[in-house]
Amino acid sequence: MKIKCSWCDSWINDYDKVCPNCGGTNENFKRQGTGVPQTITELKEWAVKHNLPLSQMRTYIGENYTGAKAFGIYKDEVSGNFIVYKNKADGTRAIRYEGPDEAYAVNELYQKMKERVAEQKSHQTKVQRQPTSKGRPGKIVKSLLFIYVFIFIITVTLSGSYFLMLTKLGKSPSAGYYNYSGNMYYWQNTTSAWYIYDYDAAQWNSCYDNLDYLYDNYDDYRISSYSYSDYDVTDFTESDYYVEPKSSSSDDSWDNDWDDDYSWDSGSDWDSSWDNWDSDW
After folding, report:
1. What is the tens place of the pLDDT at every residue in 1-54?
2. Fewer CB near the last or first residue (10 Å), C or N of the chain?
3. DSSP string, 155-195
4. How far, in Å, are 139, 215, 227 from residue 196 at the CA level?
5. What pTM, to 2 d.p., does this model score?
């Protein structure tokens, strides 16, 4: 997934440890789950493993299919680039990705395939669950009204909480270097703490000063991650205090996208009418 670098606002991958444009640390670094297809061959294997009816899905892996209504990926032998595409209902082609990064290209189609499988299963479930309620109309209306009111109250409450949370988060400094009151500081998100550089000892130490003003006005004192060395300080990420950002789950429990959630029932037909063939993706 593409995200914005918090240092230079360039678009980068969420699995880039550092920004390829400015060298800044990616605070939202996300490891790719074990087993996620990285190549066109692995994507084919994943499709076979999950019994996906590629012909019904109109999905062409490793093939430059030119007909209408199709998703696909292939490697262009002339440029060497990997191309992810969608052919619309009128036959025009929308390019989702074209570049040298095979893993990124494969992931684009892989995510779309999972999305389409989930949507197909959702529609199938709705068809299977035909409404059988024979209750009195008045009772049904009252029940629905109660549900709508309840959902409305919950939505308003959660929206307010989410807004407050975003407001609070918006005031938090980003991990990085800050030059304030003649000293160099580093804010580390993983520990939610400030660290100060000791020039005499040439090392970073925990900081116990009152830095409320710096915390509230951090944008005025932030130093670009790639220019911290101009202030004669060492790289904080090499210090004993640095704690690498963790994934939302431990390394041993990363999401394994090869599970059975996206397996297709071989006895079920794929209904391509659920695809919006007029959109770019």
Report:
1. 678 888 888 888 766 777 888 888 887 765 455 568 999 999 999 999 999 999
2. N
3. HHHHHHHHHHHHHHHHTSPPSEEEEETTEEEEEETTTTEEE
4. 66, 14, 17
5. 0.48
